[in-house]
Design a protein that fits this description.
Helix 5 crosses helix 6. 12% of the residues are buried. Helix content is 76%, strand content 0%. It contains six helices and no strands. The longest helix is centred in the middle third of the chain and has 25 residues. The mean pLDDT is 84. It is globular, with a radius of gyration of 17 Å.
Length: 143
Amino acid sequence: MITEFTPLTSALGGMMVGLAATLLMALHGRIFGATGIVGGLLRPGDRNDWMMRAALLAGMVAAPTLLLVLTGKMPQIQVPVSTPAILIGGVVVGVGVFFGGGCTSGHGICGNARFSRRSIAATLTFMAGAFLSVFVMRHLIGA
């Protein structure tokens, strides 16, 4: 499997996520956890809270359209695994989010920035899992 090294676009994307997390915390006192934001859309509650969550999700969805307007082309998305593998991965991630009390954006960006021991442990755990998964897929299974 060939992967591309894209330091400029990766750095820009990281800065945009960091800015969004900083603004959400500064303006609303909220942690930027993507799964919590999306999950909150499914629960009835405060209308203003729901609107904020919907706006964040709309921004995530609108970003590729903005790239199209600026560059004239959509980002290329390649998914080198089967649909069953994606579904199994989604379930595994969902279970991890549930038992880990948050996702990579909540723990990895916001929690680590606050020096949360729980977030540091969660980040180390999912990074170790990612390294192990890549090693197994590339070197043991050969996918």
